């Protein structure tokens, strides 16, 4: 049964040091395609190196909100770097107020707006990260017309109300290994309600390994645990979750087809 890991960081330690084995285990575990996601503009080179090793790995270009710094302009760089035919998305981008070192949230918000503008310019979907910033995330998505291009709320941990709001904005919702955690019943309740045609799964590797691998480095081969958990939660065979999320991956990331 083919699986897709819609969000991982194969260019991060410790995965990149064992990348051939990581990719082999992924394919042996049924993972057909992986999206290697950028957290900074300098990531493009390492991501391209991984893509050269495996034609089933695609990439994104973006600046994580925790890397926003002084909000240097990134619009032109995003447009230029996304021209690579295997760069299929803009992000990850968004807002993260959890460990906000810069007291001025405007730096994150300005770069978030530039990412949305770039995505609309190049017609590639957005990968959104949000933490402790739900209201501002929704406001900026609306103000900048993000629904025109759509995208995905990755590693979803928000409320049912927030889920309904982003679904209305033409976004998909992706669940990571967090959904398997014992204390994540509220998240599983949300996962039960997401329409099948808007559902994605991911690892966010090397972070957030699912049960039973929690506490170890995560990798794409573990995305099957997320699919199985969602199958249990939604009362359907896990193979149905795998089929739907693979179909949704290619519907959203059209350049990966």
Can you offer a commentary on this structure?
- The protein has 9 helices and 8 strands.
- It is an alpha/beta fold.
- It has one domain (about 5-255): Metal-dependent hydrolases (TIM Barrel, Alpha-Beta Barrel).
- Strands 1-2-3-4-5-6-7-8 form an 8-stranded parallel β-sheet.
- Strand 3 (about 55-60), helix 3 (about 75-80) and strand 4 (about 85-95) form a beta-alpha-beta unit.
- The longest helix is centred in the middle third of the chain and has 17 residues, at about 105-120.
- The radius of gyration is 17 Å and the shape is globular.
How do the helices and strands line up, and which of them pair or pack?
Elements: E1 3-8, H1 19-28, E2 31-36, H2 44-53, E3 57-61, H3 75-81, E4 87-96, H4 106-122, E5 126-131, H5 134-143, E6 151-153, H6 160-168, E7 171-175, H7 185-193, E8 199-201, H8 223-234, H9 238-252
Parallel strand pairs: 1-2, 2-3, 3-4, 4-5, 5-6, 6-7, 7-8
Helix pairs in contact: 3-4, 8-9
Quick rundown:
Helices cover 39% and strands 17% of the residues.
Beta-strand content bin: 15-25%
Output mean pLDDT. 95
Please state the second-level CATH architecture: Alpha-Beta Barrel
The radius of gyration over CA amounts to 17 Å
What is the domain tally? Answer: 1
Helix content: 25-40%
**H/E topology pattern:** EHEHEHEHEHEHEHEHH
- Intertermini distance: 18 Å
CATH class: Alpha Beta
CATH topology: TIM Barrel
């Amino acid at each position: 049964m083919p699986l897709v890991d819609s969000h991982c960081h194969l260019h991060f330690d410790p995965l990149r040091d064992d990348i051939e084995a990581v990719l082999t285990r992924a394919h042996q575990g049924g993972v057909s395609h992986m999206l290697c996601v950028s957290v900074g503009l300098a990531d493009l080179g390492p991501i391209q190196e991984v893509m050269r090793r495996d034609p089933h790995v695609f990439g994104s270009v973006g600046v994580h909100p925790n890397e926003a710094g002084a909000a240097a302009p990134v619009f032109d760089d995003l447009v230029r770097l996304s021209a690579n035919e295997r760069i299929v998305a803009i992000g990850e981008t968004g807002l993260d107020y959890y460990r906000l070192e810069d007291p001025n949230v405007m730096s994150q918000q300005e770069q978030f707006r530039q990412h949305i503008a770039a995505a609309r310019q190049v017609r590639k979907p957005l990968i959104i990260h949000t933490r402790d910033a739900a209201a501002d995330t929704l406001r900026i998505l609306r103000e900048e017309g993000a629904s025109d291009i759509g995208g995905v709320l990755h590693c979803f941990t928000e409320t049912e109300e927030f889920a309904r709001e982003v679904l209305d904005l033409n976004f998909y919702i992706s669940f990571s290994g967090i959904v398997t955690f014992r204390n994540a019943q509220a998240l599983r309740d949300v996962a039960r309600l997401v329409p099948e045609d808007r559902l994605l799964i991911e690892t966010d590797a090397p972070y957030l390994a699912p049960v039973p691998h929690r506490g170890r480095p995560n990798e794409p081969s573990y995305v099957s645990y997320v699919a199985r958990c969602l199958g249990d939660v939604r009362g359907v065979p896990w193979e149905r979750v795998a089929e739907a999320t693979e179909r949704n991956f290619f519907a959203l990331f059209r350049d990966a087809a």
